[in-house]
Amino acid sequence: MLKKAKPLFLVFVFIMALGVSVFTPPVTHAQPANITLTEDDDYMYFDWDETSGSPVADYQIELFNGSDWFVWNDGVSAESSFNLDRSILKNTIGLNFPIRITTIFADTSTSTAVTATPYLGPYYGQSTQFTVGTPEEVNSEAERSAVGLDYWVDGNIGFFEREGEIYSVSANGPDTALVRKDDSSLLGSVIDANITVQNQEQANDHISGGPVYYDKANDRLYMFYHGEFHPGGDPALFYSYIGMAYSDDGGQTFEDMGQIITPDIAYGDPDRDDATEIGGGALVVKDNRMYVYFKEREDDNTHVKLSVASAELDDVLTAGALGNNTTWNKWDGDGYDAPAIGGTGAEILADYPDSYWMDAAYIQSLNKFVLVYSNGLNDQWTHMISTSDDGVNWSEPERLFGETTDEIRYISISSSDFTNQRNITGDSFYVYYTRSEIGGGSRWDDAWGERYLVTFDAPNADSDNDGVLDSQEELAPGGDGNGDSIPDKNQDNVATVQNSVTGETATLAASGDCAVINEYAVVNESSLDEQDDDYGYPVGLNDFSISCDTAGASATVTAYYDKTYNTDAWGVRKFSDAAFSAVSGATMGTAEVNGADVSTISYSLTDGGANDEDGAANAVIVDPAGPAVLGATSGGTDESEDEDDGALLADTGMSTVMVWLLAIGFVGGSALIYNRSRNPSSYKH
Questions:
Q1: How does 347-383 read in b/e, with b if 16+ C-beta sit within 10 Å?
Q2: Dihedral of CA 631/637/641/646: which sign?
Q3: What is the pLDDT, as a whole number, of residue 290?
Q4: 554 and 423 both lie in a single domain
Q5: Domain limits at 668?
Q6: pLDDT at 1
Q7: Of 216, 327, 418, 488, which residue has the fewest beta carbons closer than 10 angstroms?
Q8: Which of 196, 192, 214 is nearest to 205 (CA)?
């Protein structure tokens, strides 16, 4: 007879939203070798018939990794329990995850394997920070094939704006395609479907791009491309790397600049017994640095899901002007110190699902890097999203889109206006991808292009990194406190805050060689360590810090106020070293903002000069200064109204303070009497 054994192992701990059960009711699978498997929400229970001829000695557990079975645990005693925690799925998407067990009897004979494929639901939840719009088709298989785009888009797309038109550069199999985009379709008009990179440093079997950086000042386009060598002409064993090429004719022709990133494993290494995929060169530009994300293969052919290399933007452009590459370095876990050619890049996605294909960008309003990548384990495809403050330490990913059997592989991110593709300034971006029902090497028989819009909520966003939240800058009239028709939240040389003195808004604009605002606030004179005995500051003092291109540079700053004031008696004074002093050369004026005139003050400063509070030529200017009136008191909102109020009080012989005290006492007493009359139980006798 069958004897119920203790559970042999815990398979998965289910984390299901709303506590919904996956397996109802439990299912029993009869096996020819008298092994039965019973499943419930948390366990798999195995039973066997010990009278079948030989006692059970061990069992072997195998898991399916998407292409092959591998032994998860071999020779585990039948008297032991085996716990397979669901956390192992952190390296997978966690959908269908086949498992099988083979019982090993004491006489070394084995049973027929029991196989189960429980649907566990995704380990990673749907993103809560990012909202995905409805996917829309941007080109059909027939449309792309009709214009010679037989393998398009076979990688990352590079968008750029030139002479008022939006273009894309992207892989069409082994070649590069240049396409002019129109308003409604990714596939507007094809300029050239088969561009070959000229003067290749080495003869490639495949060389196509790719992400681009447009040096508008010099009208030079830099393309990051995916290059391949096919040993013996066998594309199944391809070896790939990231290279650069440049174009001086808007992408119609490209000249090779050579390799910038190669895997750690060498092309001819005998351990390289499989294809070596590096990716398409996902590019991000931030703070004068370029970052390129890629898939690494170490010298023992160990697969690294994601790594990154970097170089200074100025160095890239300086070398690029001569048609050369600068030196790039990989992240080695501590810094960008490993050579990008042949060095070892550290894993930066270690605990998370593999990236089959990826793209990256920088979101200004979140002040974060963003990574979107595809994963198709066990033919269950999805897109994942993760964010990072520094580009190397990534958040636990969330599902963005998918859970489909359709292959949704080649991903590209773009800003919604395409002008600065991988630097997102608004609250949304597009994800483009290639979709195929067939997938694999035959994907181009039916592949088409789709995209969806990703939006996000950024309540604490600072889109222009000027130290002032977007929510503050949006308080300006029309969101444009200096009247230049550009939202203040999108300009790092303009900042708007709520004036703590007037209760309205104030805006600061910087120009010249010191035109990046780091922080800005309007402060009341009373908050300073010392007070100006002879002057009052009716609209407060502008307390700000701005950065310069070089040490010792100069800037002009202009402050915009909420209305027109009588500025006849105004002069600008600053606070520094616990003392006040006049700012020479300051001028008063007016400007039109959102259809209304407002008062302005304007003056010049020099890094390390008299009006720079820190006194050092260090490429940063610090300056608390504001309009001052001789003999006035600080904090008034309209000087003529303040004078009239004072005259009325003088006629009664009462001070402003006394009037306010009497008023507060009257209102407070009335409220208390009213409250107690309505709520007699609200106090104790």
A1: bbbeebbbbbbbbbbbbbbbbbbbbbbbbbbbebbbb
A2: negative
A3: 97
A4: no
A5: 654-685
A6: 31
A7: 216
A8: 196
